[in-house]
Design goal:
Two copies of one chain form a homodimer. Chain A is mainly α and about 190 residues long. Chain A contains nine helices and no strands. In chain A, α2 packs across α3 and α4 packs parallel to α7. The radius of gyration of chain A is 19 Å and the shape is elongated. At the A-B interface, α8 and α9 of A face α8 and α9 of B. Chain A binds a DNA duplex (33 and 33 nucleotides) through α3.
Chain lengths: ~190, ~190
DNA sequence: TGTACATCAGTGAACGCGCGTTCACTGATGTAC
DNA sequence: TGTACATCAGTGAACGCGCGTTCACTGATGTAC
C-alpha cells in the first residue's frame, strides 16, 4: 500500500496499522524489524518514528497486546476455576497460546523488562494477579503467592519446553493431554 | 592475540579456543557473533570456518557444553535425591544456573532444535533422563514421564520467569528461597 | 466565509554498522621414499 | 637423513545484506480571527 494507493498523504491510524502489520508478521513467522513493519504497512521506513520512540517501543506495545490477548484466552476458560482440574485447563490454555503464537510469545517473554513504567510490565502483573486469584480461590488455605508462582512457572516452563522442541508431541491435542497429565501428576503424589 | 603474538601461523587448538572465547563472551553478556568470537580468539574472521560449518554449528556446540555443565551442577547436588525436598534442590540449582549464566541458558533453550543429530539434542535428552530417573526414584508408583515433565517444566518456567524479570527477587538467596517455596507449596496442597 | 498560519504526519536520501559468508591465497606441517 | 610434495589451517580483501536511526523536507489538516 503506497501513498497513492492509500489515497492520501495521511494515513488515518498508522499506529494501529503498524501494530497489526507487526502482529501479522510475528504470526507469519517473518523476522521482525521496524523497517519490515513499515514496509508492510505501506509507509516509509521512518514513518513509525511518529508513533513509536524506537524499535523497542513498538516491540513493547506488541508484547502488551499479547499479554492482554493471553489474559482473554485464560479468562474464557471455565470462568472462576473451582478445582484443580480447572486450574489444569489454565495451563493447557497457556501452553496452547504459546504454541499458536510462538513469535509473539517470545516477544512477550524473551527479554528482561526492567522498565517499571512499561505497559508490558503492567500487563504481565495483571496476568500474575489473575493466576494468584485463581489459585487462592481453589486453595484458600495455602500460601497463595508461592502457589501462584508454582502454577505460573509450571505452565510457563511447559510452554517454553514445547515451544523450543525440548519436549515433543505429535499434535496440539497431544500437547494438551500431556500438559494436563503433568499438572495432575503433581497432585497425585503426596509427601 | 595476533598471529605474531601467538608465535605461529598455526594455532594449536583453535576449536577449543573459539569455544572458550565464545563462552567468555556469553558470560560477559557481550553480543555473540562468529566475527566477534574470532576477534576475541585473535584470529581472522574466516578462521572459524575450518572448525565449524557455520555460525549455527558453533552455537550448537556451545549449547551442548552448557547442557553438560548444567548436568554436572545438578549431579553435584545431594546425589541421588531421596525426598521431595531433595528434588526442590534440583530446581534451585537449575534456576541458579540460569541466573548465573543467562546468555548461555538462552542459547541452550532459546531456539527450537529440530536437528535430530544435533549434539545439543543428545545433551538435552540426557538432562531429561536424569530428571525422570530422579523423580522415579522418589515417587516409584507415579507416572514417571508425566512427573518428570512437570518437574522439569516447573524448574524451567521459574528459571525463565526470573531470568526475564517477570518474577522478581532482591538477591540470589531470595530467588532460591522462593523456588524452594514454590516447589514445596505444591506438595502441601492435596486434592 | 475566507484566509493566514501553526502543527501534524508523512517522505526519501543518507549515515554507519556489524554481520555471515565466499574466494583465492599462503605459510606450516607431516609423510613417503 | 634429506628432500619433494600433499594436505592442513590459517589469512585478508571483498561481497551484499538489512538494520536502526538522523536529517531536512513537504504535503495535509485544523484552527483563530
Amino acid at each position: 500500500m503506497s501513498t497513492s494507493e492509500r489515497g492520501g498523504y495521511h494515513h488515518g491510524d498508522l499506529r494501529a496499522a503498524l501494530l497489526s502489520a507487526a502482529m501479522e508478521m510475528l504470526e507469519a513467522g517473518e523476522p521482525f524489524s521496524l523497517r519490515a513493519v513499515a514496509r508492510r504497512a505501506g509507509v516509509s521506513p521512518t514513518a513509525p518514528y511518529r508513533h513509536f520512540k524506537d524499535r523497542d517501543a513498538l516491540e513493547s506495545a506488541l508484547a502488551a497486546e499479547g499479554f492482554r490477548d493471553l489474559l482473554t484466552d485464560l479468562g474464557d476458560e471455565g470462568r472462576p476455576p473451582a478445582s484443580l482440574s480447572d486450574l489444569a485447563e489454565f495451563a493447557v490454555a497457556y501452553v496452547a497460546f504459546a504454541l499458536r503464537r510462538p513469535a509473539l510469545f517470545r516477544v512477550m517473554f524473551g527479554k528482561p523488562c526492567d522498565d517499571a513504567d512499561d505497559e508490558r510490565v503492567k500487563a504481565a502483573d495483571a496476568l500474575h494477579q489473575l493466576l494468584a486469584a485463581a489459585l487462592d480461590r481453589v486453595f484458600p488455605e495455602a500460601d497463595a503467592s508461592a502457589l501462584a508462582s508454582a502454577g505460573w512457572g509450571l505452565a510457563h516452563g511447559l510452554a517454553c519446553l514445547y515451544l523450543d522442541g525440548k519436549l515433543q508431541a505429535a499434535s496440539d491435542e497431544e500437547v494438551a493431554e500431556r500438559v494436563r497429565g503433568a499438572f495432575l501428576a503433581i497432585a497425585s503424589v503426596s509427601p
